[in-house]
Amino acid sequence: MPHLAAVGPSDGLARAGEERLAGEESARGAVRSERRKEILRQRREELGLSQEDLAARLRISVRAYGNWERGLVKEWTDRKLLALAEALEMSERQCFWLFRVMVDRDPPPTWRAAEENRLPDDPAQRDYLCDYAALMESVPYPSFLVDHRWDVALTNSAFDQLFQSVRPHPTALPDDNFLRFVLFHPDAAAVLEDHEPAWCVPLLAQFATALAGAPEDEGLRSIRQEVARDPFMEAAYRYGVPHWLSTHGTDAAELDGAVRTVRHPDPRWGLVRCRMVAETSRMLGEMGLTRITLILSTPTGAPRGPVQGGGFTHQQGARLRAVPSPVE
Prior knowledge:
Blueprint: H1 11-46, H2 51-58, H3 62-69, H4 78-87, H5 92-103, H6 123-137, E1 143-146, E2 152-155, H7 157-162, H8 178-184, H9 188-191, H10 195-213, H11 218-229, H12 231-248, E3 259-263, E4 271-279, H13 282-286, E5 290-296, E6 319-320
Antiparallel strand pairs: 1-2, 1-5, 2-6, 3-4, 4-5
Helix pairs in contact: 2-3, 4-5, 10-12
């Protein structure tokens, strides 16, 4: 019997549609489950921690934590997720994405990032970093402090504005780890022009040198493992970097003095020439930190000085990631 449009689809068609939707939902659920496991494992490896180490921080058995990382959890409560965020030394944005991926909701408003661990133990070094924040904020160009793993300790307002369009990411935010951002964040190429040849390959060359000098460093080894899991980056690391170094020489991998191109957040500026200046001081050197500043050239016809609604405007006080914002 022919199907009557006024009556609606047959039972067979309805069942087929329900099965298709169920299959799509199942596939999405499988991807989400794998992403949950990946977030916990990647963050643990970034910190150089074993499952035993993290279980000790959480005060649970190794078997119980192993079940957490494998996704064998009946219910992710706020208490469990907040304990995980603290044990994994997550920033506020990382905690936000932990909750969004795990339970599809925001963390409770009482959450505060546990970033005290980013501060050095020496009081003199702490005071120096706090004062250095004011120095960096006085510079109109994007500037940030990184350690040998490219973990970011301090950024200024101009840096934050340059990357203001970058979406949150569990492990590759520009103000968490700059190398991971360049290599793995899907929005990196939208800000960093000539992304692969001008940014990825030189930083991979620097990373290879750092890893060769400290092969047991857990943070560097974690990045190496993540590169190995990405076929594109693994090919660039194994084959692209040696070819690039043989063509351009080892000096080409140096950041200091390198000229790159970035896309300015103000669309009236567009692509901007950028010279990288890398420097350190005695105190920063003792803390294993290097300051990198991106000197942006003003293109012809572009607005000079602060621009309402865009461009690099000065804000009061630098954002020192390890230091809580003062309470007024």
